[in-house]
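Sequence only, no structure available. Ideas?
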Amino acid sequence: MARAIERIERDIAALKEAIRAIAVELQTAYASYLNTLGLAVRKQLILASYHLCTQGYPENFLHLSLNQRQQLQQAIRKLGQVAAQQLLTSIKSEEVGLNKGDEDEENKEVTSSELLDTSNSQSLTADTSNPIELVKWQQNLEEVTQDILKKLSHDANVLIQKSGILPKKLPEPILAAAAAASEASAEVMPGPPNLLNLVIEIENEQQSEDSGLTQIMAINLRLGEIEFADVTLSSERRQIRSILVQLNKLGREYQKKHREKAIAEAEAAWRASWFED
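Reply:
I predicted one. Tokens follow.
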């Protein structure tokens, strides 16, 4: 029995080494992916803003002076640059925590919103030889990425609204790029990518039924559409998926071996404590 436990422990040690190698590969893949994503986000933000200003609200855009248009365009480019930097900062913060192992258990409760703050030195910790912790790290990084895109969409809409292009009384769920289409009396309309094109019903008993329908357009950057438009980014996403398949396979084997070890140790403990009457 002791030899069986030793064999299982050797198998677990080998699995841990393989998982550590996968962790390094996953970190490298995400670093490259987020760098490419930052460039793609800047491009798609500009394209979405262009469509919003020229196709969504062309009259309002034409009312701006040349200086106002240039200031708006510069501010939009700046938002894209900041978001790209936040994406890189998120992976760097995560890597610090991933490499720390389980030295600081308290830091495991850091939220994705805290990671959006580039001045925050705390980060999620994860044991790189533990597949469960590694998956949590990956999922948290994906959540942070979505949060950055959502915040960028919101900030861009607020900026464009303040410039006088978007209607002043747009509901906050639209400006926040939330799932307004799933709320009551909202219909999604086809249109350019990364834009939320909706027809919503505004409740007003003094108006006719037709006059209560309003079509609105707002920026809503979506990861799937950004990846679809960029060949390099979609290729890097496929690489990440491939690595995760390997990680899941190793993770199942890791859990199986730990289960075998627990059973073997329990059987040994039973025999060690058993005495015939």
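Helices lie at 2-56, 58-62, 66-99, 112-115, 131-162, 172-175, 223-228, 231-273.
Hope that gets you unstuck.
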